């Protein structure tokens, strides 16, 4: 679309959008978010991911990134880790407003409303940058129409790593599209390596039942509760059986069920 007008050192490959960075915000030494312009023809479902890269090589490196913005937003937001020697993130972390980001045209993913049967309560389990797809989902009015209660569980090592989700949830109250639904959403944020009002891994807090007493809700029940999980491979490997232990079953786009899973990318 606008690629012809961009001043990039290498030609834009076929089949990708070349978009302009509109905002960059750094949270910690290792976490930041950035926003890019959105092509009119780019459509996605809240919770999906897309491949992104930089126009800094003849054959650019592309990596999967969850889209952190909702489908109604006129920009596209990403939440990223900074890896010192990461083939993409070592360059991405230096992004400035006005720079060009490449984005493949076709989004995909399983953390979407369509892959879940209707229910009363949606549990979103995230560790680290695994919160990114939920940043999209909790900004989508459709989620609040489908579920009465949304619980976003976000566990990190240290407090600075919770800033993104905490600021986002706080900002929703004033959001013209979501504000009226904001009381349906609860953020359950826990830390594992720094003092905090809520401590521990989500898996341990489910096993002990503390997460349910803290939140004042009954234990997860397949009649009423739905789950989405996004974190490291180890986190998924431990959280999946925990949900299965409550009687939930894994679904997919073509076979909706009671929970869905996606690994957090670039970890
Ligand atoms: P912990 O500090 O006990 O390892 P990481 O940066 O390693 O991906 O971890 C992000 C957060 O996820 C940390 O709070 C970490 O807790 C937690 N975590 C790591 N592995 C698991 C797991 N297998 N199940 C649940 N939580 C996990």
TrEMBL record:
CDD domains named in the record: FNR1
EC number of the protein: 1.18.1.2
Give the UniProt keywords, A-Z.
FAD, Flavoprotein, NADP, Nucleotide-binding, Oxidoreductase
Under the heading Pfam families, the entry gives: FAD_binding_6, NAD_binding_1
Q: Indicate the family of this protein.
A: Belongs to the ferredoxin--NADP reductase type 1 family.
GO MF annotations, alphabetized: ferredoxin-NADP+ reductase activity; nucleotide binding
Gene Ontology BP terms:
cellular response to oxidative stress; heme catabolic process
User: Which source organism does the UniProt entry give?
Assistant: Sulfitobacter marinus
Start and end of every FAD-binding FR-type domain?
14-114
What cofactor does this one take? FAD
Protein name (Swiss-Prot/TrEMBL): ferredoxin--NADP(+) reductase
Q: Does the keyword Isomerase apply?
A: no
Q: What InterPro entries has UniProt attached to this entry?
A: Cbr1-like_FAD-bd_dom, FAD-bd_FR_type, FNR_bac, FNR_nucleotide-bd, FNR_type-1, OxRdtase_FAD/NAD-bd, Riboflavin_synthase-like_b-brl
Its recorded reaction(s) are: 2 reduced [2Fe-2S]-[ferredoxin] + NADP(+) + H(+) = 2 oxidized [2Fe-2S]-[ferredoxin] + NADPH
* Highest taxon in the source lineage: Bacteria
């Amino acid at each position: 679309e606008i690629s012809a007008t961009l001043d990039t050192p290498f030609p834009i490959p076929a089949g990708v959008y070349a978009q302009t960075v509109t905002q960059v915000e750094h949270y910690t030494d290792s976490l930041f978010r950035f926003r890019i312009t959105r092509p009119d023809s780019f459509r996605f479902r809240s919770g999906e991911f897309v491949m992104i890269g930089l126009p800094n090589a003849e054959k650019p490196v592309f990596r999967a990134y969850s889209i952190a913005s909702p489908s109604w937003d006129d920009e596209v937001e990403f939440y990223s880790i900074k890896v010192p020697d990461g083939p993409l993130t070592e360059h991405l972390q230096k992004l400035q407003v006005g720079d060009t980001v490449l984005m493949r045209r076709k989004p995909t993913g399983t953390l979407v409303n369509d892959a879940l049967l209707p229910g009363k309560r949606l549990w979103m389990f995230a560790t680290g940058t695994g919160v990114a797809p939920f940043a999209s989902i909790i900004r989508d009015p459709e989620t609040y129409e489908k579920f009465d209660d949304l619980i976003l569980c976000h566990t990190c090592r240290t407090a600075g790593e919770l800033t993104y989700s905490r600021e986002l949830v706080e900002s929703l109250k004033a959001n013209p599209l979501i504000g009226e639904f904001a009381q349906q959403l609860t953020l359950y944020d826990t830390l594992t390596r720094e003092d905090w009002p809520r401590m521990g891994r989500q898996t341990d807090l489910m096993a002990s039942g503390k997460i349910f007493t803290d939140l004042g809700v009954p234990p997860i029940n397949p009649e009423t509760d739905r789950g989405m999980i996004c974190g490291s491979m180890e986190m998924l490997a431990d959280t999946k059986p925990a949900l299965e232990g409550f009687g939930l079953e894994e679904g997919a786009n073509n076979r909706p069920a009671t929970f869905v899973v996606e690994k957090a990318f670039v970890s």
